[in-house]
Automatic annotation (TrEMBL):
Keywords: ATP-binding, Isomerase, Lyase, Metal-binding, Multifunctional enzyme, NAD, NADP, Nucleotide-binding, Potassium. Signal peptide: none annotated. It comes from Mangrovihabitans endophyticus. Residues 216-475 form the YjeF C-terminal domain. Its EC number is 4.2.1.136, 5.1.99.6. (6S)-NADPHX binds at residues 61-65, 122-128, 151, 251, 304, 355, 419. AMP binds at K389, G390, D391, R392, T393, G418. InterPro entries: Carbohydrate_kinase_pred_CS, CARKD, Nnr, Ribokinase-like, YjeF_N_dom, YjeF_N_dom_sf. Homotetramer. CDD domains: YXKO-related. Pfam families: Carb_kinase, YjeF_N. This is Bifunctional NAD(P)H-hydrate repair enzyme. GO terms for biological process: metabolite repair; nicotinamide nucleotide metabolic process. In the N-terminal section; belongs to the NnrE/AIBP family.
Length: 477
């Protein structure tokens, strides 16, 4: 599991580390790692010697890292030019070193270059880029040269992953010590490109809790419940699916197909699409209503359910059970008027899976610029695990733990793909995973399936469901 830390925590760790090393040592470690990565990129396209490298240099230490890295590239024969945003405030030691090794300063963006290092601002940035920096970033976007962002792409909000204005879009971001939220969450993540972490020795002093955890395939494979010799269909868990309606029978089929790909031994369906469900999935045991469904270990409720009194009774029914419950789509709409406030006071886990519109209705405001903060706030408020959908889906727990999903594809933005996710997540709940792991694992595998489906052309949610099994076969070996 990778982790990312907030600026304040990085700063304290850096301060503690700096007290133990010679002055300037951290910047040299950062510059060495940065130069190495740049040399690798140049090496793949003709070599370092003679390559035209442009440094965009702000007046903080981010610019300092960039100048020292540029000096190292100049020492290897690159033609390095530095564009200083504020020449009087550029890092003096870095500028001296660059000049000593043959680098020069320029006043405008050159027409052509082989690599650009973005050292305008790093973790010391505040607010959106100032006009001169923003102009430069806009002009850079037209040059189409490969860009390496130093620590973070300039213009992103480091702690939230928001992109409040102009921002550099990098091919590679070389960051120091640890990941920061902007590398993995929100619209900023798409600006970072491939992210490389350079070890500057921060590990020992970085003691704060991470701001966000990023699962990898090994985590999901380790968590995924697997049947053993003593398993039977009941001991593997039975998930109840209360979704779909006469108007939306497809939602029932999609959520059931998601549930069937999960680890449970049986799927029970309760609702008016039962005939369609059995026709498509003969192994599913069906009933008309939640109250008649039989024993399950977790409930999934909401996709395509409608918002009439029958739907309300079903939502009330699943919430009244002592079991883990996932509420999605129409069930979330039904929560908004407050009539289920009492039902929400339950001891068993609750997971809600809103997209932005559902989130706004539930929380009373849109997730806004800080998706992690917003998800945490809602999770604490309703005492539920919140899975906030989107690119880089966020999972937040009532106690404030946050996960960001690294898999997925924009192709998942297709009607019904959330229904598939809900079914899979419910299956993991019934299979015995703690709610936050079920949410994280479901988002991860759903994202893998989305990617696989996208490789085969335009994606429907049925394609996503069909790719869950192959994605799992690959993941679980
Ligand atoms: N600490 C360490 O141990 C290590 C730190 N390291 C490196 O230091 C970096 C942090 O350096 P930092 O603290 O000097 O801040 P930095 O990111 O250069 O930004 C400050 C400058 O930006 C300016 N500025 C601010 N906002 C702006 C805006 N919106 N638009 C435009 N400009 C804006 C601000 O201007 P001012 O407000 O002063 O006028 C000031 O000039 C970090 O990311 C990493 O690369 C590594 O060497 C490893 C060891
Ligand atoms: N731009 C995007 N990039 C990646 N994934 C996305 C994007 N937009 C939506 N998704 C994913 O697609 C799914 C859509 O779910 P949802 O909005 O509930 O659809 P539906 O209600 O039609 O089933 C979610 O898993 C979400 O994370």
């Amino acid at each position: 599991m990778r982790q990312a830390w907030r600026v304040a925590d990085v700063r304290s760790a850096e301060k503690a580390l700096m007290a133990t090393v010679p002055e300037g040592a951290l910047m040299q470690r950062a510059a060495a790692g940065l130069a190495r990565r740049c040399a690798l990129m140049l090496g793949a396209h003709g070599g370092v010697y003679g390559a035209r490298v442009l440094l965009l240099v702000g007046s903080g230490d981010n610019g300092g890292d960039t100048l020292f890295a540029g000096a190292r590239l100049a020492a290897r024969g690159a033609q390095v030019s530095a564009l200083l945003l504020d020449p009087d405030r550029a890092h003096p030691g870095g500028l001296r070193e660059l000049r000593r090794l043959g680098g020069r300063t320029v006043h405008d963006l050159p027409e052509r270059c082989d690599l650009v290092l973005d050292g305008i601002v790093g973790i010391g940035a505040s607010g959106s880029l100032r006009p001169r920096a923003a102009e430069l970033v806009a002009a850079l976007a037209e040059r189409r040269a490969p860009v390496v962002a130093v620590d973070v792409p300039s213009g992103v909000a480091v702690d939230t992953g928001d992109v409040p204005g102009a921002a550099v879009t990098a091919d590679v971001t070389v960051t120091f010590g640890c990941l920061k939220p902007a590398h993995v969450v929100g619209p900023a993540a798409a600006h970072a490109g491939i992210v490389d972490v350079v070890d500057i020795g921060l590990g020992a002093t970085l003691r704060a809790d991470p701001a966000v955890r990023i699962p990898d395939a090994a985590d999901i494979a380790a968590w995924w419940p697997r049947p053993g010799p003593a398993s039977d269909k009941y001991s593997r868990g039975v998930v109840g699916v209360a979704t779909g309606s006469a108007t939306y029978p497809g939602a029932a089929l999609l959520s059931v197909s998601g549930a069937l790909a999960g680890p449970v031994g049986m799927v029970r369906y309760a609702g008016s699409a039962r005939d369609d469900v059995v026709r498509a999935h003969p192994s599913v045991v069906t009933a008309d209503r939640v109250s008649d469904a039989g024993r399950v270990q977790a409930w999934v409720c909401g996709s395509g359910l409608g918002t009439d009194e029958t739907a309300r009774t079903e939502v009330r029914g699943v919430l009244a059970s002592p079991l883990p419950v996932l509420l999605d789509a129409d069930a979330l709409t039904l929560l908004v008027d407050g009539r289920h406030a009492e039902d929400l006071r339950r001891n068993a886990p609750l997971v809600v899976t809103p997209h932005d519109g559902e989130f706004r209705r539930l929380a009373g405001e849109a997730p806004g610029a800080d998706r992690m903060g917003a998800a945490c706030k809602l999770a604490a408020w309703i005492n539920a695990v919140v899975l906030l959908k989107g690119d880089r889906t966020v999972v937040a727990t009532p106690s404030g733990q946050v996960f960001v999903n690294p898999t997925g594809s924009p192709a998942l933005a297709t009607a019904g793909s959330g229904d598939v996710l809900a079914g899979l997540l419910g299956s993991l709940l019934a299979g015995g995973l703690p709610a936050e792991r079920a949410a994280v694992a479901a988002a991860f595998v759903h994202g893998l399936a989305g990617r696989r489906a996208a490789e085969r052309g335009p994606v429907t949610s049925a394609d996503v469901a069909a790719q869950l099994r192959p994605a799992l076969a690959e993941l679980l070996g």
